[in-house]
Protein 1
Amino acid sequence: MPALTRALIDRQISQQSRLSAMIAGEQAKITSGRLSRPSDAPADWAELGTLARAASDIGAWQANIGRAQDRSAHADNILAAMVSALVRAKELLVQANGPSGNGAGKEPVAVELEALRAQLADALVSRDSEGQPLFPSGPAVELPVGTDLMLAGAPDRASISTGIATMAGAASLDRILADAISFVRTGTPAAAAAIDGVNAALDHVTLGQVRQGIASRRIDEQADALGLAAIDVSARRSELADTDVAEAITRIQQGLTTLQAARETFVRISRQTLFDLLR
């Protein structure tokens, strides 16, 4: 066989092998994605690794932000109920200090104040959906929800129930309610001090409710930011790893056309070689 003919046949075989491999590769991309191994695109593969870690971090932060939102909503409801209870306590004290609050009429007021005191005490030891203290006795529970970002879904118990500024000095919520009950039953402390204490408690818990609203908004903003970040990461991963099916099909069709032409050329060269041998 002439050397030139042998070289042509070798080239045809090599070309057909490459075309077949290319077609198989494009078909695999349609099935499994654009990148199946690091050698496909080393830089893109490395970026995909970084994006995978980012997606994992975002997923963990979103789980934490969900828990923070749950605690925040629960805390907001509890604080609203506490404000309502203190508003009622104030009404009862005003009633007890008025003309209609004399004699036997005071005891029902004292009994209702005791119920409000118990309600507030129970509120402070509320638990979240996971059975954990909503308002912990120690520091507020902060959860990681971003890079170097920790947020608390609810405040600590002391910030709500202690350090309330009254005309007699700092007092606890329970002490203020105990004094209110004592005033109704015994007249001690004086009406002004009892009413001032409940007013101070109402202002204090209301301020806590406002702060909780601000914290809730911050949590929701971070939840939105994480949602957008997750979308961006997903889109970039898709851009790097997913196959453009239409383009892949076009390349497969072009490859099949070229492969068919190469095979026809190979057959023609092979026939010529056979005729040379028969002559």
Note: The mean pLDDT is 83.
Protein 2
Amino acid sequence: LTTDQTAALTTAQIGALTTTQAAALSTADVAALTTSQTVSISTKDVAALTTAQIGAITTADIAALTTGQVSALTTAQIGALTTDQTAALTTAQIGALSSSQVGALQTSDVNAFSTLQIEALTTTSLAGLSTADISGLTSTQAGSFTSTQVQALNASQLAAVLQAYNNV
């Protein structure tokens, strides 16, 4: 199919693609999909997309993905997200990330998190944050950790939060 033909597919047709067919979409095909079409890609098919295909998804489409689709992203796919794509993640999507997915985020992506995105991290997913991720946070970002989140941090992470908060 051409990119124009792919863009003309209905959401039902997109949802019916096999994993092999979804993986065969070009990055131009993925970029041409509407938000409704992107959201209609099955969870298993989202996990089969290449990092280049993930990179072609618009920020609006990233924000529209279901939490199930986001949870299905591989660590390679998560690591390939741009800072703009990561910034587009909703708090529900952030809350759906596993610790290994959080660990796959680039430090620059974590450092670009909003305070609401930081607050959305679960106590389990916090384990994926490196001290470098935390050390690069602003004092406002570091101050947005909830008391429950702070209690879940290990000693190295806590020291990094204190350093970022105090801007030492």
Note: Residues 17 and 149 are 40 Å apart (CA to CA).
Protein 3
Amino acid sequence: MRGGNAFIRLRQGWFAEIAAAPVKGVRRSDAKLVATSITIVKMLRKVYFIASGILALAACEQFRNAAPVAQPGAIEERGAGRTFAFQPEQRWGGPRYTRWEPVVAADPSSRWVYQMTTEQHPDRLLFRSSNDGGRTWSASRRICRHAERVPFQYDPQLAVAADGTVDAVCLDGFSPGVVFSQSHDRGRSWSLPVRLDGSLRYSDKPTLALSPSGRDVYVAFNVRYALFVAASHDGGATWQAAIRATTRHFWYYSLGGTVAPNGSVWFAVDGEDGRDQTGDGHVELVTSADGGASWRGIPFVVSHEGAPCRGKSCYPDFYTAQDAVAADSAGAYVFVYAQNRVPQGPNQLFVTRSRDGVRWSAPQTIASEGNSTSPAIVAGPQAGDFRLVWQDNRLGPKSWNTWYAQSSDAGARWSAPVRLSDAASGAPYKNVTGYAFPFGDYLGLSVDSRGCSHVIWGEGAGVYYPGGTWWTRGPDCK
């Protein structure tokens, strides 16, 4: 989750209504506010959990799906000379489950696919796996710390190495903060979490980048007005101390990262230059060519302060300039970012590309209608193959949709956008033209060795509640 302060992070549903007023418009970087908020939160959470009968914060339990998810029919849209066919969108769990900010990772060497999402009440991470390319799924289960109670879990990240090792990163509260764990048995068991922020007293919003071999693992995260990166070069067995990767005094978030074939690592970042979740967004790439020992920033554009977010419990920087980056097997890069060119105006979506990471093309517009947010991009199995997803409301203020586009020439040309959120009903926030609001700050995209794209996102009535996790797959999902 991006943009809220510590107090906002701990509230959900009706609990949000109780907590909203005292912290309206205040950034979580205010240490005094955070301390006060935590005290209040502890009292409110105690009342809430007694009333709801939820007393074991770190209890792990399993939730059984009624049946494997079937994949009837397909939706098709023609673009760039070919037809893209996606399965109809599906919801993870029934309508009573509130789950948001999901991610997905496909094994590059097999048909295994993994998903994670965040359930609410209590705020814990759910994990499930598929051994047949996403046709059917295992039971959902919680991944939590057995050795220590944590107030909440957010911001999952997943990646799969060539040998099938599954790496996971998440936020275990603001302390211990960003933690790393991995599984060597397809997610059945997990290593004890390793804290990555060392002696830092605050960390937020991790982004995971993994080399194809799985040996080099990088995790970027926010530490108030700086971005830090922790690195491992033995597959996550040991970790170097996290170091500061930015120099300017901006509130940095990373929303995407990649490791190129030459070993360089790249994180797409947005640095907010204001206070209280306001100000312009500085769109940059942060990169290292020496295994994370040193870092440099590459500024691209400055986006004005985002459009006001008028939804219930929303925060001022919800429409900040989010971005993402990917590199293919030939070393080509594509960088996607949201930008508005009018103060508090809607975001457009742009891509720029490079063959060497030094010279970048002029920006190309991908989406110019409505307000765009939450881009994600990955490289496909062939050189020049890039897949892109995002959310926008081109069809109306309450008609948000999740869109997909694809390039076969390293980002020079893109297909017509494919609307993935095709279900006209099934939840109170859905309608024939889309859904009411993006549920959370980001979504997930991965592509497997067969060329099948796996997409997962949140749909809801507002940024916090109610809503659910939805997903689909395609094209080339044989």
Note: The longest helix spans residues 31-52.
